[in-house]
Design a protein that fits this description.
Distance between the termini: 56 Å
Number of helices: 6
CATH superfamily: CofE-like
Helix content: 10-25%
Number of strands: 13
CATH architecture: 2-Layer Sandwich
Strand order of the largest sheet: 1-12-2-8-9
Shape: globular
CATH topology: 60s Ribosomal Protein L30, Chain: A
Largest sheet: 5 strands, mixed
Structural class: alpha+beta
Strand content: 15-25%
Length: 250
């Protein structure tokens, strides 16, 4: 008998969510059923609109200046091939233009949530109470580019309700070799599956439910899995360029 799991990811259609401010809690009412041990993905854009994190384009016409205010540090656009993006590091994440985006913004730039972790925790509390469940994870998603590949994949800029790492260290592979370094990044893996289902265009599916995930360990505590730049294996690349200091917040 085969022993396997099928992880199910289901995107949820909603009405248009209107910048600069709309009711996130009303939008979450589109979730009609949640069972224990699920993870809910919410795109960062609707969380930001719910928090009023929008800036009118006609009042702040330079996206780069806004991104520089929002980021911790950045590389000028003229250092990037074809000047396509502004490379930035925000909240210890390598991301284009500090996450500032005008797509589906109806004349507004939409920033990241002020504190994605706090936003995820608050959404979890709302949904746990509504559906009377205890084990629930939340991820706040965005999309990012992968070096040397075309197209974007999902990224969890915030998460809460589960441990973010699946640790194989000390266990053995199929030939008995002991793993020394292997760990799996659960938030970003789930975000990639969710973003693929939610889409990047006019789908109007900013929510997704991921269920039947056997390897997620649910918890009410927050576990951080950030790596400092100097300890990261990509540090030789990050340290080889001259970063400029950003504003660190709008």
């Amino acid at each position: 008998m085969l022993n396997y799991h099928i992880v199910i990811t289901k995107a949820i259609k909603t009405r248009k969510f209107m910048p600069p401010k709309d009711n996130l809690w009303e939008l979450l009412e589109n979730i009609k059923y949640l069972e224990e041990n699920s993870v809910v993905a919410v795109t960062s854009k609707v969380v930001s609109i719910g928090e009023g994190r929008c800036v009118a384009i006609d009042k702040f016409k330079s996206k780069d200046k806004l991104a520089i205010k929002e980021t911790d540090k950045y590389l000028p656009r003229n250092t990037v091939p074809h000047g396509l993006v502004l490379h930035t590091i925000k909240n210890n994440l390598f991301i284009a233009s500090a996450g500032v985006d005008e797509s589906n913004g109806d004349g507004f730039y939409i920033l990241w949530p002020e504190n994605p972790q706090a936003s995820a925790k608050k959404i979890r509390g709302f949904l746990c109470k509504k559906f009377k469940i205890k084990n629930l994870g939340i991820i706040i998603t965005d999309s990012r580019l992968v070096p040397l590949r075309r197209g974007v994949v999902g990224l969890a800029i915030g998460y809460f309700g589960f441990k973010p790492i699946r640790d194989y260290r000390g266990t053995k592979d199929i030939f008995g070799r002991v793993f020394e370094m292997e760990t799996s990044n659960i938030p970003d893996s789930l975000a990639t599956a969710a973003v693929l289902e939610m889409g990047e265009g006019s789908e109007q599916t900013p929510l997704a439910i991921i269920s039947d995930i056997p390897y997620v360990e649910f918890t009410k505590s927050f576990y951080d899995f950030k790596v400092s730049e100097k300890e990261d294996i990509f540090y030789p690349l990050f340290s080889a360029v001259k970063w400029k200091k950003g504003g660190g917040g709008f």
